């Protein structure tokens, strides 16, 4: 049976032994951090290695195979220089959705402003809006119905960050976020779990209207 604590201990130990002082940071992300993991969930681990190379990637892959559960392994790995020059639009999301396991992530993240976070939300909203409109016009009805709920999963992260902009409160789990947001936002968060016989026309129109209103919420 999978045990997250044991897995993390083994992974950190192997990485320390292998990368030595070049191992700067490890953190937990994803559904296990949010308390939403199930038996098929990935294990999302963030790793920062100084002077990161392709050989390091190969080595890390072998470590993951060695400790077991390789099929569940996932995450984000990068070099020190890369993360220090990362897009500031993504800094807020990284900071709040990563739990430090080794080192402190904030020691390596570039500075970011409220404007950066606002632009991150605008880009996320724009991408989802475009996806919905493009598929509605250029794909058949069956594909729209089949893909709709999958697209709606992305609205969790959008509403998570939009709520943070509006309240200053970054909420990690979907369950708690549902409890804190408006009834309208809560309804959108539930769309990814719609039953198979859901009413596509009603759901699409409701989500389209929500997107239009969300753009207005981001006006400076």
Automatic annotation (TrEMBL):
Domain Polymerase nucleotidyl transferase stretches: 25-69
MF terms (GO), sorted A to Z: nucleotidyltransferase activity
InterPro entries attached to this UniProt entry: NT_sf, Polymerase_NTP_transf_dom
Keywords for this protein: Transferase
Classification via Gene3D superfamilies: Beta Polymerase, domain 2 (3.30.460.10)
Cross-referenced SUPFAM superfamilies: Nucleotidyltransferase
Pfam family, any one: NTP_transf_2
Protein name: Nucleotidyltransferase domain-containing protein
Protein source organism: Treponema bryantii
Taxonomic placement: Bacteria, Pseudomonadati, Spirochaetota, Spirochaetia, Spirochaetales
């Amino acid at each position: 049976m999978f045990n997250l604590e044991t897995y993390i201990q083994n992974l950190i130990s192997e990485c320390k032994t292998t990368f030595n002082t070049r191992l700067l940071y490890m953190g937990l992300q994803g559904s296990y951090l949010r308390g939403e993991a199930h038996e098929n969930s990935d294990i999302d681990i963030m790793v920062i290695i100084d002077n990161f190379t392709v050989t390091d990637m190969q080595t890390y892959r072998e470590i993951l195979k060695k400790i077991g559960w390789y099929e569940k392994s996932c995450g984000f790995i990068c070099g020190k220089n890369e993360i220090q020059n990362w897009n500031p639009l993504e800094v807020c999301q990284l900071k709040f959705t990563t739990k430090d396991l080794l080192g402190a992530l904030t020691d390596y993240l570039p500075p970011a402003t409220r404007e950066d976070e606002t632009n991150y939300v605008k880009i996320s909203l724009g991408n989802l809006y475009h996806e919905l409109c493009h598929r509605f016009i250029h794909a058949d009805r069956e594909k729209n119905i089949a893909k709709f709920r999958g697209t709606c999963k992305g609205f969790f992260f959008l509403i998570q960050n939009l709520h943070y902009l509006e309240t200053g409160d970054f909420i990690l789990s979907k369950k708690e976020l549902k409890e804190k947001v408006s009834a309208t936002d809560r309804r959108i968060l539930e769309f990814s779990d719609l039953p198979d016989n859901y009413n596509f026309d009603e759901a699409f129109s409701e989500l389209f209207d929500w997107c239009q209103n969300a753009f207005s919420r981001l006006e400076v």
